[in-house]
Write a structure and sequence with these properties.
Elements: E1 2-9, E2 22-29, E3 34-38, H1 45-52, E4 60-65, E5 68-70, H2 80-87, E6 90-93, H3 105-115, H4 120-133, H5 149-161, E7 167-171, H6 179-194, E8 198-202, H7 207-211, E9 215-220, E10 223-227
Parallel strand pairs: 3-8, 3-9, 6-7, 7-8
Antiparallel strand pairs: 1-2, 1-4, 4-5, 9-10
Helix pairs in contact: 3-4, 3-5, 4-5
The structure holds adenosine-5'-triphosphate.
GO cellular component, one term: plasma membrane
GO molecular function, one term: transmembrane transporter activity
InterPro entries: AAA+_ATPase, ABC_transporter-like_ATP-bd, ABC_transporter-like_CS, ABC_transpr_LolD-like, P-loop_NTPase
Length: about 230
């Protein structure tokens, strides 16, 4: 479950007189829900995903993710260690992929499983299944830099999904994909949602939400409107 209570965000270094990037956010996303995150460029979609992924603290208010409450003050709420362990249950597909350049595609995808301490023999079938799902089985041994943008995006998606996270956050996950690949990715996100993962997808695409009507958070003027699906 993700709950935002009276949340505001101002980036460090911004003048106190500057308007908050996000303000007065009050909404709850139920565990296992699917939510589109919509709004024009610069509306704050990536910033909101960073708050949901506990990569940023709110400047005011409280963000609660899977029972962990995070506020502006580190000493009063969840501490760094608790946040770090919670972040292992949250997977993010970043706009810029963030694949590790010195690891093969398969090792990038295996990374969350290795970090979680999974035995080598048990993780290989999961990695192979994910690579097949995203159509990258033939590129498993290659380095990310040798892949196209769309292939890197699919590798990043496979890495996010392979550990069956409780929360999956995706920032423009179809930006580099052709229409067929985008539909396939949407099927994967819907499958994750049906398996109980809370899924939030930021997109500029009008086609994707039309294909899978669901609840939406619509950002504008720093505020979020929660539209039930
Ligand atoms: N690290 C940062 N430091 C300071 N300001 C930032 C930072 N990241 C984003 N911003 C500002 O926050 C606002 C929202 O940016 P954000 O990237 O969250 O929007 P977005 O809706 O994801 O945009 P896009 O659709 O273009 O990716 C913008 O005004 C941006 O300049």
């Amino acid at each position: 479950m993700l709950r935002f209570t009276d949340v505001g965000l101002r980036y460090e270094g911004a003048a106190l007189s500057a308007p908050e990037v996000l303000c007065d956010l009050d909404f709850t996303l139920a565990q296992g829900s699917f939510t589109w995150l919509l709004g024009p460029s610069g509306a704050g979609k990536s910033s909101l995903l960073r708050l949901m992924g506990l990569a940023l603290r709110p400047s005011r208010g409280e963000v609660e993710v899977l029972g962990l409450r995070v506020g502006p003050n580190p000493s009063r709420m969840a501490r760094r260690g608790a946040i770090a362990s919670m972040r292992r249950r949250i997977a993010t597909v970043y706009q810029d992929f963030r694949l590790l350049p010195y690891l093969s595609v398969a090792d990038n995808v295996a990374l969350p499983l290795r970090l979680a301490g999974r035995a080598e023999a048990s993780l290989l079938p999961d990695v192979a299944e994910m690579l097949a799902w995203v159509g990258l089985d033939h590129r498993h041994a290659d380095r990310p830099a040798t892949l196209s943008g769309g292939e890197q995006q699919r590798a990043a998606i496979a890495r996010a999904v392979v550990g069956r996270p409780d929360v999956l956050l995706a920032d423009e996950p179809t930006g580099n994909l052709d229409a067929g690949q985008a539909r396939r990715l949407l099927a994967l996100l819907i499958e994750m949602h049906r398996l109980g993962t809370t899924v939030v997808v930021a997109t500029h695409s009008e086609d994707l939400p039309a294909r899978f009507p669901a609840a939406a958070l619509v950002l504008g003027g720093g505020r979020a409107r929660h539209v039930q699906g």
